[in-house]
């Protein structure tokens, strides 16, 4: 009896020392290792993992309704954006969820901290050995063969059945991307903004654009004002990743060449996340970062611009969005020239990040993303058997920006990514415009795309033969990476005028764009975005998946927003 009791006590002690993982059910799974990755082997059991748990929000559908109410011009609540505290009330988990997850953490000796003020994201660190037991997972080292990037992920993880209704996802787990959270540098996702030959100088219908795209050209074709913004409370944030550094000397050279009417010492503020930095050695100047800063500071005259440099020690889009959600007064415009293929992001992950953008929109923040640079191919894969949507452009709570080329007239750029999300359905604000396009398209590309998905891009701007300064040299670049900061500058200037007139900033744009402001865009009716051994989507009258609603007319936009 004494031996049996001791054995029982030992068994009980061993059991209690292990994570509580009874009644586990698979929560997310990948059936195979994604193309381009190599499974190296089990991660070291002692390696510490920083994991985040996304909890279901108390009333996310209620927040969505509020977002549309404050973003739709026909609504009596238009422009009445919420405070951070008001948004948090919708987003925070229920007491039942908090208690259930907290009890689970305590039972497994886990100490978690809040990642967001609302408490819908919790993070903690545990060794690989404990994570494998806790989630019935197999955390493994994966290497992306092209970039050499390594990360520890699992192809499957499970949760206790009792927590399925409380936990939306755990990350990073099944998410495998060439940059593990930000995938711009690899051509398998978005082709980086690329240098192109200097255009031939010709007698154009618009002489300001005869030698390529410059601030003066944009002012001419879009009617962008050159006078300083009247209100300094309008702000633009430019995101930077993968060691792309914005060089202040390059910006000064750019202003001296292309904006001789403003002080060449005009510069930007700097924020850093995840160990990011912004060294100023000319050899480290980033083509992407320089482009983004020069076409915000140099086009949105007088609007304060901030560059946030995100290091490799975190998780890209997620970290930027949660940082912004923690600010009492976030910048009113955020532009991002990076993205990835939608299918590489799990549905739960995509939905949770998209909900972060919903929260920002409800607070009056305009979130802009470049649509991508691979036409309908998404990942530059000519053998693809179906069109490849990009992400986050398919999120319905942000504005996706495609590209045009030429000025007499503008046409859709062949590289301009556009199409239909496989994750998100078509939102009401664009259903009529998309239905009209699909009717015109007919059976073309049938079976290649999800006709009931959220369609993108929403708008377009110049994206080819754009002149910038990098490392002291003047070069021409191309990509939707050019288009997003250009459009961000227009929104920043409009916001400044609205604030000066005692009105609210624009916030989430799409309900406005697809209704009263649609006529404020120049319709682009020539061009296509080939890929997957097809001609891709053709442009058409009205909205199309190459240039969206078209390119902006500043004067008409002023009228559309009530100025």
TrEMBL record:
Question: What Pfam family is a match, any one?
Answer: Peptidase_S8
Q: What is its main location?
A: secreted
Top EC class for this record? hydrolase
Give the UniProt entry's GO cellular component terms: extracellular region
Highest rank taxon of the organism: Eukaryota
Q: What are the names of the required cofactors?
A: Ca(2+)
The UniProt record lists the EC number as 3.4.14.10
Name the Gene3D superfamilies on file: Peptidase S8/S53 domain
Catalytic function, reaction form: Release of an N-terminal tripeptide from a polypeptide
GO molecular function terms listed in the Swiss-Prot or TrEMBL record: metal ion binding; serine-type endopeptidase activity; tripeptidyl-peptidase activity
Q: Which SMART domains match?
A: Pro-kuma_activ
Which residues constitute the signal peptide according to the record? 1-17
| Alphabetically ordered keywords of this record | Calcium, Glycoprotein, Hydrolase, Metal-binding, Protease, Secreted, Serine protease, Signal, Virulence, Zymogen
Keyword Aminoacyl-tRNA synthetase part of the UniProt annotation: no
Spell out the subcellular localization from the entry: Secreted, Extracellular space
According to its UniProt entry, the protein's GO biological process terms are:
proteolysis
Free-text cofactor note: Binds 1 Ca(2+) ion per subunit.
Show the active-site residues: 288, 292, 481
- Enumerate the residues binding Ca(2+): 523-524, 542, 544
Q: Where is the Peptidase S53 domain?
A: 212-563
Q: Which PANTHER family match?
A: PEPTIDASE S53 DOMAIN-CONTAINING PROTEIN (PTHR14218:SF10), PROTEASE S8 TRIPEPTIDYL PEPTIDASE I CLN2 (PTHR14218)
This chain's function reads: Secreted tripeptidyl-peptidase which degrades proteins at acidic pHs and is involved in virulence.
- What name is this protein filed under? tripeptidyl-peptidase II
